[in-house]
From TrEMBL:
Coiled coil residues, start to end: 390-417
Gene Ontology molecular functions: ATP diphosphatase activity; methyltransferase activity
Enzyme Commission number(s) from the entry: 3.6.1.8
Stretches assigned to the Tetrapyrrole methylase domain: 3-202
Domain of life: Bacteria
Stored PANTHER family: NUCLEOSIDE TRIPHOSPHATE PYROPHOSPHOHYDROLASE
Gene assigned in the entry: mazG
Residue ranges of domain NTP pyrophosphohydrolase MazG-like in the record: 252-325, 390-451
Keyword Hydrolase: yes
BP GO annotations: dATP catabolic process; dGTP catabolic process; dTTP catabolic process; dUTP catabolic process; response to stress; TTP catabolic process; UTP catabolic process
Full protein name: Nucleoside triphosphate pyrophosphohydrolase
Keyword list, A-Z: Coiled coil, Hydrolase
Amino acid sequence: MAKIYVIGLGPGSIEDLTLGAINRIHNENKNFLRTENHPTIKYFKDNDILYKSFDYLYETKEEFQDVYETIVDSLVEEALKGENINYFVPGNPLVAERTVEILLEREEDIEIITGMSFIDPLIMSVKRDPINGLKIVDGTVFDFSMIDINTDMIITQVYNKRIISEIKLILSEIYGDEYNIFIVDSAGIKGQEKVNNTPIYSLDRFEDIGYLTSIYIPRIEKEKKNIFDFNDITNIMKRLRGEDGCQWDIKQTHSSLRKCIIEEAYEVVDAIDKGDIDSLMEELGDVLLQVIFHAEIAFDEGEFNIIDITTSLANKLIYRHPHIFLNEKVVNSEEVVYNWDRLKDLQRGFKTIGEKLDNISSLPSLMKGLKIQQVAAKVGFDWTDIKGALEKIEEEYNEVLEVIDSLEENWERQEEEIGDLFFSIVNLARFLKIDPEVAMNKSNNKFINRFKFMEKECLEQNVKLEDLTLEEMESLWSLAKKNKF
């Protein structure tokens, strides 16, 4: 196979063509262009240089990756004929050029003739120093996960209004409509360069959009900070636990925060049950705080760090979703759950059902009971129908009555029988596909709301609730029920 010379054409100005690029343009090799939508192609035409462009593939292929793979296949096929070829790309071949990446991945015989990238003239155009960080992303695949509010960003490949409109919607969600950014076309090309410093809401109103258009997003400066990301929170926690930090935060340990994470988790559940989205957002933040708090404590103690946590989580999600990441086929969601549980057991090294039962976490009792019964049911230790579950409740209820009627002051026996009754009721809930913890929480809230109604009625009647007879209280309770509390 002959050699493929990959030549960068620079950011757009003919003056920026390197001597190496000009020499390659004028040699006897066949010339191939990824695209002729670039100002330097005028140099080819002015000097009667023959070339073949791959622009037609952008019209015939549905996915960009297919375009790039086909270009590389065509170049390799041409090189296999035994003669060296030239392949010209905009900018620097090693910056935002997927076809060159593929050539390098395939380890083809290539030689790169560098060129100036579009980055240098773009930075000059917007007059920004990238010393604090610069992130470059592809606008055709841009999404929320690519945003870094603490770093300057360049979004390239924004050559039509559809792409820019989609980017605008994403940026507005994070930065807000009024945040000022730059939209730049033909950076560094004399007489053609256009630089617009504009709020995000007007991003898609510009007409001068093409293959040399880029968006430049300045990082949010500390003194103007009004939105924060994950890294900001970890940095805040570092300061709180630092040398001149908060004494309370510095003293905390994994054990001292144990009850906090339980409380925060319950408050998330409460917000969900109430359908209070604003509270849900806030409470999820409190749960996240607990994760970051424990990560910082662990880092200080040399145990683990936040990247260990995210890595462990990512590995777990990938391992337990082979139908997504390894293309294994599943029939339905039930099979997904089955595979998740099976892989979870393999990962934890469980060999018996007893080991699995022992490993059930210290959950609230109703949740733990449900989990135990679910594990047992999977190996067939279960009633054949709901009738068995109902009869078991009746049996346990009678045993509670029996221990009460015995007049024995056997507190342990009473506790045991009450526990068995609870366990059998949880089993009935499982048959009905009801989460007993959720059901109990709803009943708790129902009681609270009815009791508050009773207090309100007493207040309006200028009487004290505790002064009422039981019959009067029951009457108010019935009234609360009628009012759907």
